[in-house]
Structures are given as C-alpha cells and as structure tokens.
Design goal:
Two copies of one chain form a homodimer. The first copy, chain A, is an all-alpha fold and 213 residues long. Helices cover 76% and strands 0% of the residues of chain A. The longest helix of chain A is centred in the C-terminal third of the chain and has 25 residues. The relative contact order of chain A is 0.10. At the A-B interface, helix 4, helix 6, helix 8 and helix 9 of A face helix 4, helix 6, helix 8 and helix 9 of B. Chain A binds a DNA duplex (30 and 30 nucleotides) through helix 1 and helix 3. Chains A, B: This is TetR/AcrR family transcriptional regulator. Chains A, B: Keywords: DNA-binding, Transcription, Transcription regulation. Chains A, B: It comes from Mesorhizobium vachelliae.
Chain lengths: 213, 213
DNA sequence: TCAAAACATGAGTGAGTCTCACATTTGCAA
DNA sequence: TTGCAAATGTGAGACTCACTCATGTTTTGA
C-alpha cells in the first residue's frame, strides 16, 4: 500500500544495483546492508523497515545504501533472489535421481516438507513472498521461477509417464507446483495442527494428480 | 511496500468508517468517493492511488474523505467487502439446491468459471486480492471469508458423502477452495489460452478430490 | 427560531524515500 | 613516489505523500 517513490522511474531498473560493488570493501558493505535488511524484515516486515534504519544498522550512510540499491524494493528483490537460488538447488537435488513412482512419491513429499519448514522458520521468506503478490515485477519473477521449478517435475514425469501428452503434463505440473506454494502459504497462516493437516492433504492431492491414484 | 501511515493507530480500528454517513447528502458523497477510488484502482492499482486524487475525482475535499474513512486502507476494505458479499451470494445460490454428484459437478464447474470471469473482468478485485496477501488484517478477513465459503461446500458434501470423516471433509473443502483462488489468480496472470487450460485442470483436480474419480 | 449535531474544507504537519553536491579512498600508470 | 581518475562515502535537505485540525457551513429536531 502507498509508496513514497519520489521520482517514479517509469520503467523500473529492475532489481539491478545502481552500481555493482567492485572493490572488496564495498562488497562487504553491501553484505552488511543485506544482512541488516534481512534482520529488520524478520523483526518487523519489509513494510515497516525504514531505509534509515537499514543504513544505521549496517553502519553506513543512507547515501551508500542508494549507491548500490536503486530503491527500497531492490533490497527485497536481492534477498528474494538469494532464496530463489537456494531453493532451486534444493529442488533439483531432491528430484534428480528419482527412478520410479515410489521414489517420486517420497521425493515429492520431502520437497513439500522442506518448503513448509522453510516458510515456518524464515520470516523473511514469508515477507518477501507476500510482497511478491502485490508487486507486478516481483510476481513476474516468481512466476518465472515457479515455471522453472515445475520443469524439474516435468522432466521427471516424462520418464515416469512417457505416454502422457506433454502439454497436459506441463499444465498439471505447473498447476500442482503453484498449488503447493499456495498450500504452504495457507498452512503457515493457520494454527500448526490445521496447517499440518492441510499440507498432508495437499500432498495426497498433488501426488494423485501427478502420478495417479 | 512502504507505508506512510502517519500516526500508526497501533490496534487498527479495522475498516470501520470514522463516522457513518447519516444524511442523504453524505451518503451520496461516500458513494462518489468509493466510485472514484474504484476507478483509480482500476487504472493504476491501489498502491499508486493517491488520496488527493480520490478526493478530487469525487469532487470532495480531502478532509471529507477522512471524515468517513479512517485511512487509505479502509477504502480498499470497503470495496473488498462489497465484492465479498457479492460473491457469497453467488456461491450459496450456485450450491444450495444441489441434489446429487452430477449436480455438484456442474455447480462447481460453474462456480469456478464465475470466479475466473470475475477476476478477468474486474481489475479492482485483482488489486484488492493482491493487497490481501501483503496486509495482515486483510488476509485474516479473506481467510475467514474463504472458510465461510468452504462451509458451503462442506454442507453439500455432507449430503453427498455422509460416511466421510467430517474433519477430513472440512480440510479438503478448505484446501480445494483456497487452491481455487490461487488457480484463478494464476490463470489471470498468464496468457488466456494457458489460463483456460489451468482452470480446466484445476476443475478436474478439485472435483476428483471432492467427489472422487 | 435556534442550538446542537453532522458535515465540509484545505492549509499544515510529519514521517519517510530518495537526491545531490561535495569529501574521501582506492587502483594504477608514469 | 606521485598524481589523477574512478569508485565510494556522506548526510542535509528536497519532495511526496497520508493524515490532522481549527474553522466554517448545513441539516436536524425540539
């Protein structure tokens, strides 16, 4: 809501640092800025995070902050990108050596659990993710990422179900993946017991859809 | 992102007009304010909507705006509440006289289509919905609403599948409902053709889950 | 008819983002 | 070693809002 974007940059210079740190010193400072931002988001959410606070906690001036991040949003994006990369690695690792349907089932289940635990434990991810819904550019980023992740599923499914129509496979995988993100988001916003039930129900649902009854 | 909430009201006086219009004149003015806000949200999104602009377009002063809405958020909420009420009516109408499984299938399918069309056609709904993800209070409102809607499903399912465990039924219905909202949201953010495929896939998935193969 | 309640107004307040003119440090070639 | 250009660093203050409040105007109802 709202937004104090002083000079609306029209076509946002999406997520790219205004200048990328080339010296060791500045690279460390940028790290400190990200760490400070991460801590503040964890404490109060990105909406309540103040640029001045980030600068202060990182031990830099506000000008330095804007030297490397074009705007407040960009800091959130930078954090989002890290988590994205991290989870990509997680996913490919979990799925790459699946050989049969049983293997797939347990890999899928494990994957969902990892996501669930990650969201439960990491307030920053939750925050970034909800920003993702409101912000057009972030949403696009997330969709692309989600598609990439669904591709991992498709790759595996093509081996397990070689006779299924590829387009259908693609659609199903993408849908199931997105449903998974929605399910986890839902699960963490209700009490733990119900959350667990919902995640379990999602697993059944997703697996039924992906590899049949 | 961001937020210019000047005097953070601590425990937000959720969505209740600061003063409800009692005279005919002011009721009309409030209508104009909501209409102006709705138009502006449709044009640029609620984030870019400026209170000054709303006032100007409604032909009232900014002070009058704050006479009836405690803050910017409240305007979005008021709009959200209208749509919520509208869709509630829609849902109960579609589900109330379902007698058998076949009837349920077509009612469910119709319901999903209505939602899909609604989101495709109404930019304000889309915007309000995404705000719902970022804002804690709005999210709670939406969850409660979603639960209420899922109850309609549960009521019907209890008739169709009287031998199923009620808790499981509840969980499944709630999950399927939320998945539906996520599916529609997803569908409108990709191109039309893929969106249609995704919605169709969701229908299969939801029905399979709710009334079996 | 008149006082109280409801309504209307918009300049002003303050919180917060982002800029910019100027200072300092680093890398590196002469 | 020296010196200069590029990279960095700084923070006062410009600017953009959401929201307030002191001060009028209109409606209601007794």
């Amino acid at each position: 809501m709202d937004g104090k974007v002083a000079a609306k940059p029209d076509q946002a210079a999406i997520a790219s640092p205004r200048r990328s740190p080339s010296q060791q010193r500045s690279r460390e400072r940028v790290e400190r800025m990200l760490a400070a931002a991460s801590a503040l988001i964890a404490e109060q959410g990105s909406d309540a995070m103040r640029m001045g606070e980030v600068a202060e906690r990182a031990g830099v001036s506000i000008g330095s902050l804007y030297q490397f991040f074009p705007d407040k949003q960009a800091i959130v994006w930078a954090l989002a990108e890290r988590y994205t990369a991290e989870s990509q690695a997680c996913i490919s690792a979990a799925l790459e050596d699946v050989g049969d349907v049983e293997g797939f089932k347990s890999a899928f289940s494990e994957l969902v659990d990892i996501y669930y635990q990650l969201f439960l434990a990491e307030p920053v991810i939750r925050d970034v993710w909800s920003g993702t819904q409101a912000d057009k550019a972030l949403r696009a980023l997330e969709l692309a990422d989600s598609r990439a992740n669904a591709e991992f599923l498709v790759a595996v499914l093509k081996r397990l179900r070689p006779d299924t129509d590829p387009v259908e496979l693609e659609t199903t995988a993408f849908l199931v993946w997105q449903m998974g993100e929605a399910a986890v988001r839902l699960a963490i916003s209700v009490d733990r017991e119900e959350g667990d039930r919902l995640v379990a129900a999602y697993k059944r649902m997703g697996l039924r859809e992906l590899v049949g009854e």
